[in-house]
Specification:
Layout (H helix, E strand, L loop, with lengths): L1 E6 L4 H10 L5 E7 L8 H4 L16 H4 L4 E4 L6 H10 L3 E4 L9 H8 L6 H6 L1 E2 L2 H9 L3 E3 L3 H15 L8 E7 L14 H4 L4 E2 L7 H13 L5 E7 L6 E8 L7 H8 L6 E3 L17 E6 L6 E8 L3 H15 L16
The structure holds NADPH dihydro-nicotinamide-adenine-dinucleotide phosphate and N-acetyl-L-glutamyl 5-phosphate (X2W).
Organism: Fluviicoccus keumensis
Subcellular location: Cytoplasm
Enzyme class: oxidoreductase
């Protein structure tokens, strides 16, 4: 059994890790930390875990975490990089759900996250945990920068077109919408029910920290520098991301449906839907699945891709477990068989 620790167990990605790991056949939950709720039984805060998780929250101490085989950081940016060097020295692998190990360019990290990086040498060895792109490197990684939620939906949606060299890489557009759980569990005015409910708006239009993460990934697919306009929106729902992606064709693309199906053939967590389908966020709610549909409206020169994920699963905790499975040589889908909750 793999001994697992979770730092940040009281947040939304933390409790999602717990929900999924409690059903994982190869995992023993060893430590679940919270600074604010240390001593409280986990199932008291999260009754969905009653009878399934019998631990109490503990302080995030090196002693407890150092006894694990792998530690997930479900914490704000800047926390994982402080503790990762000591954990690695004790032979513990690290999967950060925050952004400390995602951006390879230090200047970009410091610009978008407003803090210096405390372990650049570990950032260099860390692997970006998008299995559909980096599967082999993930298998041997000690540190994973788990992708952001929007970057997962956008990169998986655009990858087939970019790898095939079919679209103008200077003018990509990603119009993406997220449910409010994407903002985490901490109290903030803009995610209050009476602020976010029955309303809809964009945010981060002039610049969002996921822009450099997405372009880093897309650059890796094209070998050059892509130009991307990325506009996130806040939807009055709890879970889910819907990304609508636009690319202008630079040549006759052939059968786009076949291109998508072939690219993702054999991928356990990417579902290319039949031509004419409209992926819904509810079709992935609670599941580690990205569902994609590709369109060429009126046979014109614009390709439209629809990509949906659950921000807390394929956009965070599920993908992190997929990465853990790869790092420990387990079946990639172990513990990740959940079917989406519908309606
Ligand atoms: N929500 C989402 O959809 C997604 C989130 N992410 C990323 O995952 C990470 C966690 O997000 P989310 O679960 O939404 O956040 P939350 O705000 O819901 O939870 C954050 C957790 O971190 C703990 N924490 C905060 N500061 C520290 C610290 N200095 N040391 C140790 N623990 C700390 C908190 O517990 P306590 O204060 O009790 O210790 C809390 O449990 C973030 O980096 C986020 O950007 C990534 C993809 C999607
Ligand atoms: C709706 C909402 O607020 N979503 C978050 C993104 C989700 C997330 O937490 O991603 P990171 O891990 O990269 O921070 C945001 O736009 O800041």
């Amino acid at each position: 059994m793999i001994k697992v620790g979770i730092v940040g167990g009281t947040g939304y990605t933390g409790v999602e890790l717990l929900r999924l790991l409690a059903q994982h056949p190869n995992v023993e939950l060893t430590a679940i930390t919270s600074r604010s709720e240390s001593g409280m039984p986990v199932a008291k805060m999260f009754p969905n875990l009653r009878g399934r998780v019998n631990l109490a929250f503990s302080e995030p101490s090196l002693e407890t975490l150092g006894a694990c085989d792998v530690v997930f950081f479900a914490t704000p940016h800047g926390v994982a990089m402080k503790q990762t060097p000591e954990l690695l020295a004790r032979g513990v692998k690290v999967i950060d759900l925050g952004a400390d190990f995602r951006l390879k360019d230090l200047a970009q990290f410091e610009k978008w996250y407003g803090m210096p990086h405390s372990c650049p040498e570990i950032l260099e060895e860390a692997v970006y945990g998008l299995p559909e792109v980096n599967r082999e490197a993930i298998r041997s990684a000690r540190v994973i920068g788990n992708p952001g939620c929007y970057p997962t939906a956008v990169q998986l949606g655009l990858m087939p077109l970019l790898k095939a060299g079919l679209i103008d890489v200077d003018h990509l557009v990603a119009d993406a919408k997220s449910g409010v759980s994407g903002a985490g569990r901490k109290a903030e005015v803009h995610t209050l029910y009476s602020e976010a409910g029955e309303s809809f708006r964009a945010y981060g239009v002039a610049g969002h920290r996921h822009l450099p993460e997405i372009t880093q990934g897309l650059n890796g697919m094209t070998g050059g520098n892509v130009g991307l306009t990325f506009v996130p929106h806040l939807l009055p729902m709890i879970r889910g991301i819907h990304a609508t992606l636009y690319g202008r064709l630079t040549k006759e693309p052939g059968d786009l449906q076949a291109l998508y199906e072939q690219t993702y053939a054999g991928e356990p967590f990417v579902d290319v839907m039949p031509a004419g389908s409209l992926p819904e966020t509810r079709s992935v709610k609670g599941a580690n699945t990205c569902r994609i549909a590709v369109y060429r409206p009126q046979g014109g020169d614009t390709v439209v891709v629809l990509s949906v994920i659950d921000n807390l699963v394929k956009g965070a905790a599920g993908q992190a477990i997929q990465n853990m499975n790869l790092m420990f040589g387990l079946a990639e889908d172990a513990g990740l068989g959940q079917i989406a909750l519908l309606p």
